[in-house]
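User: What would this chain look like folded?
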Amino acid sequence: MREAAFIKQNKSRWEEFERIVKDQQPASPDRLGELFIQVTDDLSFARTQYPESRVTQYLNTLASRVHLKIYKNKREEAGRFARFWKRDVPLAIYEARKPLLYSFVVFTVTMIIGAVSTLHDDTFVRLILGDGYVNMTLENIEQGNPTAVYGNSSAAQMFLRITWNNVRVSFIVFVAGLFTSLGTGLLLLHNGIVIGSFIAFFYQQNQLSHALPVIMLHGTIELSSLVVAGAAGFVMGNGLLFPGTYSRLASFMIAARKGLVMIIGLSPFFVIAGFIESFITRHAFMHWAIKAMIIALSALLMIYYFVIYPRVVVRKHGRQKDH
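Assistant: Here's the prediction, encoded as structure tokens.
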């Protein structure tokens, strides 16, 4: 084949390649792969038939650019996992800062309700926690270890069970947003009352100074994650209740996606909380300085990632767009 005919036959395809590598035309990874194969085939033919021709040099340059484009896309795909927690989750948290505040307020108020109810009604704690749990805790107090429940099973089994339970509870709180924000609010109310009653019970038994630091070893991350899960549920519920300029279905889908990002983003924190509760909390009589350090580091982690860091990400990348 003459060189002029070869160029005429493939010119339109090469021009398409150029538009794609210059980001003037979108292309899927599969399409990029096809282009690279076609370009290298053309280059191989040109090297055989026209080794000293300018078209051979042109195709060599074009093949290199397509290869670079593919390599760049692969690197971006590999970085998507880290980008999810570095950018996607913080942006979703920032957009949900008001629901996050509402969730914190609801949970805090209901904890106070649970504590006050327990302090003024001796039967309330048994109604909330159950006779079996209350009696077991009283026996542990008599034996000198009020929080012995955290060491009753092997650490590994406890880790798997607790981590799964934390994931399950938080996901249920989120999914309750399907029944509007009221569903999530009711579950937060229930969990807040349980925690408040639990803490007040130890106060009644004069064991709060020992029990509270032990509980907060894992509770700092665990309870904070529950508040975030509540915010995710509020986001989804509000999307259903207040569609704004979107259709109700579109608003719900956008809000559900944001809430789901928040819930998935909690997964490493569930693992950390489960690990602490299973492997560290059982050592209830460790030095108070170690307890204080773990609680402080946990609090700093949650405050930074869910309050401070989202603002840093927004300043750097801007707010996320609804799709």
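Confidence is low (pLDDT under 50) at residues 74-78. If you want, I can go into more detail on any region.
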